[in-house]
Amino acid sequence: MMNTNVEATLNKQINAEEHASRLYFAMGVWCDRNGFAGSAKYLYAHAEEERMHMIKLVHYINERGGTALTESLPKPQNNWDSILDVFKNVLAHEEMVTGMINNLYEVCLNEKDYLTSNFLQWYIQEQVEEESGAREILDKLTLAGNSPGGLFHFDKDMAALAAAQASPSI
Ligand code: OFO
Fold first, then answer.
1. What is the mean pLDDT for each group of 10 consecutive residues in the chain (170 residues)?
2. Which residues line ligand 1 (CB under 6 A)?
3. Smallest Cα–Cα separation from 2: which of 112, 106, 102?
């Protein structure tokens, strides 16, 4: 049987991953609308990845005999000032998720739920990669500045990045 505190915190994480998925999807829509088709592809793929993170948590709770919940979601933001603003928000969101994963890990240790803390190692590693990926994108955007040529090349790079990403497996 699952520890109820761990189960409730995992359910909060399910909600957060699903929210992240919709937020990145909304960012992709904004990019499509504003002439950044490559960045849109990248963000749509990222939205799928977050969905995969959500489903992985659901499977885990089910395997442990707990109850995974599908709760209501906050309305995602739909407008950003610029492409730089979009990706600054991606990084800020990932940093917030890292904080949640750390908190979840702490709950597991306090409750002596070592199985779940072991399961969370995957998410901890994933956050390292997601944050560093978001920082790399911001560096590229800073280099591109406001030059149309720079932004054009940035967006082409993002299309290549999206194509290179393996399709998420659940
Ligand atoms: Fe981008 O984070 Fe999920 O876990």
1. 96 98 98 98 97 98 97 97 98 98 98 98 97 98 95 97 70
2. 17, 20, 50, 53, 94, 97, 123, 126, 130
3. 112
